[in-house]
């Protein structure tokens, strides 16, 4: 039971820290500045939708005892390879951003060049996968960094003195409801590769089958709640700054929250939080993206740790050589919005196919929840993709 608890917590933190990357920090502060205390309602709605998406995906992965791409191939031959290609492309593109974020964190902390910091961070991430018990090392790294991020951000939230009462009230009775913000948060928390990080980790560790469903459900909900705790704390920190009438630096909104709240110390704390968020996202993106490539060939499955290391090296080399390829990141980011509705719709279909899930009966309320997420994310995902393609063609 102790081993299982450690595994469940490790999978939850892997999912949560994969979600808490540089983009997560920026999204939260920007929307707080825009919506004020009403952003609490957006967080509440996104938590409910996140849980709906994660429960469907993790449970069907566990009960079918297959990775998501293999489930997709069972539903429609060839679909799993399309899903795997989208996940891998998105994971690689966003990992370039994660490497950049880690470099920025080192720069703030130690004053080193951003590219030097990026290389150091990549080597630390690679070191995790060189350990014999790489899975356990990855779990432990995610847990430690998760606690560090939450603790440091909590300090800044307390120092900033947010209007907590107003935040609580507006969480349930907001002044405005921003649908785009809700979908953006859902995509940022369970979009792309993030959705599958914990589910694939539990599968690889041997926690599978109908008997494991209570534990899988607990781990999935824990992952969302851990990411949401970080989101709420960062929201309160930013709200405390915004409520004082202080403007956030548009070039680096989360850094200015920490700096306004706690001065030079706050800025250094931001460096640590940024590094922890980016480094754990490097690990999560590489592990999960490669878990989708393992079905392509037996040699990829057999040598998956080396493929993960290569994935991190390629991300780092691209950043060091050309920086962040903005147009590629924008386009892949828009495509990323389509991964969740595609994958979740496949999972919902698979949940009712006996040849995939056996005698398992999927709860109707989960199907309804999942269907709502699919419709909302598909509509806004297509809308965003068309808008981004139009911008690139101009």
Automatic annotation (TrEMBL):
Q: Where in the cell is it found?
A: Membrane
> What would be one Gene Ontology cellular-component term for the protein?
plasma membrane
Q: Which UniProt keywords apply?
A: Membrane, Transmembrane, Transmembrane helix
Q: How does it sit in the membrane?
A: Multi-pass membrane protein
A GO biological process this protein is involved in? iron ion transmembrane transport
* Transmembrane regions listed in the UniProt entry: 35-57, 78-96, 108-129, 141-159, 179-199, 220-247, 267-293, 305-322, 328-352, 364-382
Gene Ontology molecular function terms on file: cadmium ion transmembrane transporter activity; manganese ion transmembrane transporter activity
The organism's place on the tree of life at top rank: Bacteria
Record's keyword annotation contains Cytoplasm? no
- InterPro entries the UniProt entry points to: NRAMP_fam (IPR001046)
Q: Which Pfam family, any one of them, does this sequence belong to?
A: Nramp
Leader sequence residues? none
UniProt name for this protein? Putative membrane protein YcsG
The beginning of the lineage is: Bacteria, Bacillati, Bacillota, Bacilli, Bacillales
